[in-house]
Every structure is written in C-alpha cells, then in structure tokens.
Amino acid sequence: MTTILVTGGTGTLGRHVTELLRADGHEVRVLSRTAQPYAVDLREGGGGLDAALKGVETVVHCATSARGGDEDAAANLIAAARRAGVGHLVYISIVGVDRVPFGYYRSKLAVERLVEESGLGWTVLRATQFHDLLAQAFGALAKSPVLPLPAKVPDQPVEVREVAARLAELAVGAPAGRAEDMGGPEVRDLESLARAYLRATGRRRPLLRVPLWGSAYRAFRAGGHLTPGHAVGKGTFEEYLTSRFGRRPAA
C-alpha cells in the first residue's frame, strides 16, 4: 500500500482524510505543529520536514491558516517533496478563489499556482465551505444579543466527511490536475442557515442584516464562491446540525 503524508492531519478535514486512508490499508503519517513524531511548522520547514517525507509517495496538503503563512508553508513543503521524490501532491482549495478578491482566497489561489508549477504530479480539489465553519461562525456571532449577518449573501455548505472521502479517493489515484469542484447539495441564503442553527441550539436571537462594501462583498453576494453545477454533496446543513446537537431543527 501507499505511504501518504497528510499535512494538517489533526484538523477538521485532515483527521477524516487520515482515518479513511488508514482504514483502506495505507501507511499514513500525520504532520502538524504538535503531532508527534512529525511535529513540524511548515512555515519554518527544517530537517523535521525532510524526515517526515522520507519514503512518502503521496502528500495530501490540508494544513492552512487564516492568519497567513500558507504560501511560505507550501513553498517549504514543495521543496522538501522534490528532495524526497514525492510523486503526487494533492491540495484542498476553495471554490471561488479565482473570483472573490478576499485576502484568504488570494492566498489559497497563490498556493494553487505553486502546486501547479511545482514539477510534481499534482491534484487540486476546490470545495465550498464546510458545515463546521458555518456553525463555528454562527456560534461566535450568537454570543451577542443580536446575530449580525452580511446582507444578501448565499452559501452552499458541504459535509466535511464527504470532502475527505473525495480527497482520499484522489490521493490513491493518479495525478488529476484540477479535479471537478465539489459543492454542497443546496444553495441557501445565510439567514436561513443561521435560523436553522439557532433552532438546533435552542437559542433565540434576532437577525441583523448588515450591508457591507467592497469588491469581496460584491463577489460573495454575486455567488462567486458557489458551484451550483457541482452540487454533488449529499448531507444537508440540517442533517449536520442534528448529528452535532442532537435535535432536529424544525422548518
């Protein structure tokens, strides 16, 4: 079986990818800043990264940070992967990184280009936002008496386990270049998603629709981060909420 390194292998997505690949019989190494024996900060690189990649055939790059540093991390990973003779680099990106001028998206697009120009066999999968991310955001916003939302913004959340299954499938296959985008089953407005979250958690909060400004907000309002033509996900946001909070959010 294949020896595979999963960066960010303890994170929301990476841990599911790791579990699936191990269940399929592959030797999987987990790399993160804290996971032993491959505790490495990709932004710094170093000898620990070379040791983690020794004998690895495929890398699934899930590590990311909204606080910055993704491009440096990817450059260090790619350089070490070349030295190790890695044959396949799989990268998870976000739908709309080439259409929405948002800082984090620009960084993800820059990493895509590094991967494409790496000289390695590569695969890039773009997915829409995970259910987990929305729940985390709504939970933080609901700490105030009023839950503020950017006005007239749609979303298409997807179940993280489904994305993990697709990444695992791509990892054990041949390099595919840009794989088809992966979106959740429904395009919804943020208000309906927030109301579902509040019902599932038993909270009562009035929603405050906040009109924002700027090119990124206009792109989000226009649906630049959506992929309705690739609504291949099956799990809905309500199903995710039921599995997480134990109560079905009524319509």
UniProtKB/TrEMBL annotation:
UniProt domain NAD(P)-binding: residue ranges: 8-132
Coiled coil: none
SUPFAM superfamilies membership: NAD(P)-binding Rossmann-fold domains
The protein's name in its UniProt record: SDR family oxidoreductase
Cited InterPro entries: Ergot_Alk_Oxidoreductase, NAD(P)-bd_dom, NAD(P)-bd_dom_sf
Highest taxon listed in the record's lineage: Bacteria
